[in-house]
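Data availability excerpt. The first of two example chains:
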Amino acid sequence: MLASLLVLLIFVVAGGLFLTLVSGRGTGLQETTAPSHTKGDLNQPEQDAQRFARLLVAEIILYNRAKIQTGRTQCNLYSLLRPELDAARATFDQRVAAEIRAERDFLHEEIVTTLAQGDITRLGDAYPVPRPPYPPPPKHSAVD
């Protein structure tokens, strides 16, 4: 088990284009995530935050495959994985600088992209959709 986690950590830290986790036989659970942006689009701290978010979600997937399969089907992933997701959020918020988190929520993106397979409704109504801590851009007024 420790060796599997170590191999997973190496793949995540290496920052390859795709992170693939294949479940045990018969579960039908397979994860593939493609980064939403290339490395050139992100600076080093942002890349580190994105990789850390992937690691946290990959760890949740590694230890909760049955719950994930059920949660995707029943659209209640957050309810089933609340302790794990809340712990991941706390860890992410503690380890990633506030200025990076203020610009973009890499953990939320990874949860939706990987855990919910791109469908936020699979997280369920209880999922606390992150609200950006910064004000929305000003609306442009029509020119007379």
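And the second chain:
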Amino acid sequence: MCLEAGVARRWLRAQRPSNKQMIHLATQQRNEIAAHGERDYPYEACGLLLGSFRADGQKIVGETYAISNAREEEAKRNRFLIRPEELLRGERYAETSGLEVVGFYHSHPDDSAVPSQYDLEHAWPLYSYIVVSVRSGAAEELRSWEMQADRSRFAEEEILVPQT
């Protein structure tokens, strides 16, 4: 399912009162995001979060899908860009795997794991945005955010690590 086709259904679901925003992220996926951030340092790393939306609005991440930062060289230190064809490739992969795009991740080199104003201006409601802080090449803090329906700000999501 393409992002646009699924947005209306998830928007309607999000209009219902729900519990606190939560995302389920396994230790392996957390480690994959951190490793991608370290590997691409000092540039921003980026990728997709693939999984499913629960009826209560929680998101379950089943896989991460790394994408190359397509931003021009001089801007890669503080911006990322996912080309439309890369996003489409990720959506197709998710669909063939029985998954949906539930969010995006990116790194903040030598900065906090808090979305920037630029991140807010380019985000979409309903999706999770995981930000990993990478300082001096080492991943530190990893936090998840969801844009509010009115697009005014991000609210932090609780990251739940499933018991294995």
